[in-house]
Amino acid sequence: MHRTNRHRDGRSLLRVTSFLLLLTALLAGIGIAVAGPLISGFIKHHFPAHASSIVGVYLTGMGIGASISSAFAIPIERAAHGSWSTALGIWSIFAVIGILAWWPIIRKHASTDHHDASSRKQSSKLPWNNKQAWLFLIIFGLQSGIYYTAATWLAPRAQEIGMDAATAGTLVTVYSIMQMIAGLVTPLMLNRTTSRKSWLLAFSICSLAGCSALSYFPAEVNPFLSAAVMGIGAGGLFSIALILPLDVTSTSRDASLWTAMIQFGGYLIGGLLPLVSGVFYDIGGSYQASFLTLIFTSLILIAVSVFYRGKRYTHYSQQ
């Protein structure tokens, strides 16, 4: 009887813990979804002529944060005597720091935003009827799908071709580092030109080359080189996807609205592609088959790059 009660208590605790994990993940996702468009609008408002460079700083911060959390998650879990809740929850400290950093800025601009609210009311609509906004949404969704799929299946694919778990982890680290470097360097290069087409095409080809080599030529091409090329492609594509809505909008409010629509639909697409990749794995029985999703997605991005005609907007309004 006592054992039965303990078993029931354990299952109840598991259900509560799982629910809280999903709930906190949902809240974190909502925070990320809200922050993305707002930061794009902030960049457009305060740095309209240097938006690409500031996006690079923003992406570098994201990359450093992701790298730190990945590097210290397991050591913290071990130091906390196996407590994953501590290893996950400790990073909320950075959210508190973010609130403290943003609060003076919010208070400073609150009166100005209230004064201008009536003049902006008419333009507070997402650009659902704009074809270019839909094109950017597709680009953002496809590049997100490449990143999430690679993050999901890169280590399993590495182990499938003979690497041990530690080496596979190193391979993923190489991918992440190259992505972070590309995320920093790409905006600086984009700031020197009004054309995005050639860069979009180049990074799409990098993604295709790295994925194809790791999928079909792991013996002929060093997997670490393949992962590095994949990381360059993913980092460059993400940078461009963030910069595109800033290029074609003239006000910070429009930049936020465009970014909100693009990231809303884009992340939905990006989240589905790893699932599609999993279906390919179930059908083919290997992670080589799952990498077909990455190859097809890269090919679609190349096609989009060929037909893309957009250019950088050069007139700005401080609204």
UniProtKB/TrEMBL annotation:
Main location: membrane
Topology of the protein relative to the lipid bilayer: Multi-pass membrane protein
Keyword field contains rRNA processing: no
PROSITE patterns: MFS
Stretches assigned to the Major facilitator superfamily (MFS) profile domain: 1-313
Localization annotation: Cell membrane
TM spans (from-to): 20-43, 55-76, 88-106, 133-154, 166-186, 224-246, 258-281, 287-308
Keywords of this entry: Membrane, Transmembrane, Transmembrane helix, Transport
Name listed for the protein in its UniProt record: MFS transporter
Organism expressing this protein natively: Paenibacillus alvei
Source organism phylogeny: Bacteria, Bacillati, Bacillota, Bacilli, Bacillales
